[in-house]
Amino acid sequence: QVQLVESGGGLVQPGGSLRLACAASGRTFSNYAMGWFRQAPGKEREFVAAISSGGGRTRYADSVKGRFTVFRDNAKNTVNLQMNSLKPEDTAVYYCAAGPFSHRKEDFGSWGQGTQVTVSS
User: What mean pLDDT comes out for the span 33-55?
Assistant: First the structure.
């Protein structure tokens, strides 16, 4: 198992930006693809973005494509989610997860505790 801790959430106005970070410890971080998911109140946890173990492949949900960017630094055991042009519908708790390169939450075995992102004026 790899231990994950997210940070960087907060309150931002529509159109603003935030950068989320996920710090990993435990097993070799570079062995894992990483995913970002989010869960809004009363809704299912949904896929946001994923990045392969080496960082060469990325995948995004249609709802965030062109606005969000996922990137990682294997030397620092971190993965980040840069979120631009934020919308109120992006409001959710955001989670990072370690596993295979996938968009399915069921495929990920290690999860962080989540960080709240609120987009509101």
Answer: 97
